Amino acid sequence: MRFRTAISNVGLLHKITRSLAALARSCVIRLSPEQVHFIVPGNESSTGVQVWSQVKVSTLFDAYKIESNANNEIWLELHLDSLLKVLRSADSSVGSVNESRNTASLTESDVTLKLNKKGQQPIWAFEIRGYTAQRKPMSITHEIPVKILSPKRQAELNEPLCPQPDIHVVLPNLLELRNIVSRLSHVADDVKVSANHDGTLELTAKSSRVNLTTTWKNLSVPTATSNDDSNPPPPPNQMFTTSVSIKGLLKFLTSHLVGGTAIACICEDHCLIAYVYIGELNEAGGVLTFFIPAKMTDD
Amino acid sequence: MANQNSPVLLAETNDVRPFARLLRGIGLKHNAVMEITDAGFAVTVEEVRTLCAIAWVPTNLFTSFVYNPPSNPATFEISLDALLQCLNIFGNAGAASATTGNSAGRSKRRWAGEGEAGGGEEEADEYSGNGRKGKEKRTGMVMKWEGEGHDLNVLLTDDMRGPTTTCELRTLEPEELMNAQFDQDDMALYLIMKSEWFRDALFDLPPSCTRITLLATPPKEPVPQVQPEATISSNGRHRHRAEVGQFKILAEGDFGITELDYPNDKEVLDKFDCQEKVKFSYHSSHFTLLHRALHQSVKICLQIEKSGFLCVQIMMPLGEGVPVGGHSGILEFKMHALEEAD
Fold first, then answer.
1. Which of A110, A80, A113 is nearest to A96 (CA)?
2. Is B162's CB within 8 Å of A172's CB?
3. What sections of chain A are H helices per DSSP?
4. 10-residue stretch averages of pLDDT, chain A, 299 residues long
5. What's the pTM value of the predicted model, to 2 decimals?
6. Which of A288, A293, B58, B250 has the highest local Cβ count within 10 Å?
7. What is the domain-level CATH number for residue A264?
8. Taking CB atoms and an 8 Å cutoff, what residues of chain B touch A188?
9. CB B111 within 8 A of CB B292
10. Do B89 and A216 touch (CB under 8 A)?
11. What is the ipTM of this complex?
């Protein structure tokens, strides 16, 4: 089992990790020759939000080498906190974060990542090579323990099954959305997310004191790619609704850091699926998929 | 008789901030009683028998204000918290967005409807990228009330592009209000000063004090005895103050007494009416409630009845085009004096 790569986009990896760290303490990373999958299974986060994402190797890494006797795939699990600490240091050394207060960091660095073994403990070793403020070359190595997943555990991790979504809608700016949703969180615990084929998106929070509905209009609605024309298209003004916990929705919205286009799918009374695209839609550098389970409400 | 079809109230504005600012000033309880009149809103919050806070919201804060008086007085109780949260749904009417760079003096205590705004703001700052780009963004509002038994509907729009929010606030039967009236004819002290000075004074009071004493001496009092250990200038100051009269705020904390003197000089007190010596104490927690109300205000008017009943009126800066004698919102706090402790 060998794994070694240079990290070409430390900033992006940092942002992805930050988004995931908002959800769970640890995450599963599945490395394959073409893709890197970041997985947060449902039991990891308190709100039941799951993440199943795939990012192209070339989006994050360079000089990527992977070998194993299981289809050249490696599954490992690590603590997001420790990964986050390493990436913060690496990110400031690469210079993609403009934190001038951190004068101790290196500049013009290259970051490489290796899978090593320390005694019996497998580790991820990050090596940051750069220059100090005095222009002296220096390298910093961070090691974080990882857990290699057995094939049995791998088989237990399954992407949730969802019915055909009722509607897709392109979400407004995630940061703006997050700010509004975080204010709704003081009104109620759950929010009703509804959308129709006219491009209307509604968030409704209800409490004994007030009903709040925030509406967006004229959002684009990507046409369904499925080919079964057996069902006639629904009337454009028919709302499809699912209730989710605001906490869970907020956790997904932390991914505004990644900063791409996001599309939400509503499976009525089942779940809300959100795809956050990395980079431009057509480049498809990768996509983070968030499953937010529906909460059943009385009405 | 009002037209059956037209709503009792239809008010519109293109900037909710002055309205939200006034409401936040009295945000000391969850619920408030709102009364609609031709002159605007009177929003009252009462802390059982001890403190009464009223926000007078004039119609000039709205671009249009149509009131069709129903047969019964248009009075109802609503959740003030919820209303404030609604007004700030787009983040343009929060405590922080109204601040004019005076965050150093932000009080630690959280008020109804403030905590979340503050919290959200901090979070947004953490990822300060495009979060605060909309400095000039305004939230517009259309408020509508169909009449008794109906919800209060508030439609908020973040102008330019973007989403709209509708809020349906439950209206309740109003709670019985004490609202003791201040008797202008029985006045012992009447003074007007810059609210900034009053606010600074409140900041300086020891946090551990439980009672705050207001003291006023009329002009031409006998000069106090010369303190042998005091400096000449301080004795001179005492003499001068006895001559012109002064207002004094006194608070005793765990570590000593704080005393703030305001001599009756033109640049200190705009107006000072005091016939005989006045001394009353008030609960300090009620004064802390004044803090937030003083935020962004311009002048305060402090009146004390002979019985010790205190009425503080806080005036907000005048908006454009407000006629002479009009106002852009006044907050009024009324409280009774504490029993004199010996």
1. A110
2. yes
3. 10-21, 57-60, 80-94, 151-156, 174-184, 246-253
4. 89 90 90 92 78 90 89 92 89 64 66 90 91 84 92 86 87 90 90 91 92 91 62 78 91 84 89 85 78 78
5. 0.79
6. A288
7. 3.70.10.10
8. none
9. yes
10. no
11. 0.76
